[in-house]
């Protein structure tokens, strides 16, 4: 009886300690976000003098300024077009490449897999000069394609490897049954492998969208003009031009972060499912 009681008490103590540590860690993440949102409803002088007090009388002048003077809505549209275009291109080309690598046997397949894994080690900034030169020669700088193409290339390896890992777990019998029903390779991909691999496609699309949306480095170099400037580049400009307007800066950060946070809250289950289901499937 005594060893069991001691083990039970140790388990409770360990669980309590774990919750304390996790709660403290969560507060370091949640509180800065709350601080930013709270200060976005204050005037600039109140942000400086009473930055840690609650905005009991919220003002919306910062949000009005963000949409009227800075035209943050246009940057939202630009980010949606470029990030959405990147996701579509990555899913199409990455899905086709994953289908070939996971379901076909051919000479050089192992070498191609090794090259794909090796490209994950290449830092993005190492390719900036040749990519920028290519975009200049093709007149794609400061266009939507000027950011979609580099981001597609940068995320294609990740998408191919993740989707291929999932497709390789699909039963061979399903493929054979589709052949007997008269499916060709394209129909096999669109009607069989894409629907079955939906969790993997969903996970890849979420990560690619987030990475593309938050890619400040590429945005500042390839699409610096106002007409195609995404939201993260606009945030950088606000920091340099309106650095003394702390209320406006807090509003800009809030408007940049909140859409991503809301998207993640609604689709987080797809991330977990897509990254774990393939490991235990079949």
TrEMBL record:
It is found in: Cell membrane. The keyword Transmembrane helix applies. It is a multi-pass membrane protein. Keywords: Cell membrane, Membrane, Transmembrane, Transmembrane helix, Transport. PROSITE patterns: ABC_TM1. Pfam families: BPD_transp_1. GO terms for cellular component: plasma membrane. This is ABC transporter permease protein YurM. It comes from Paenibacillus albilobatus.
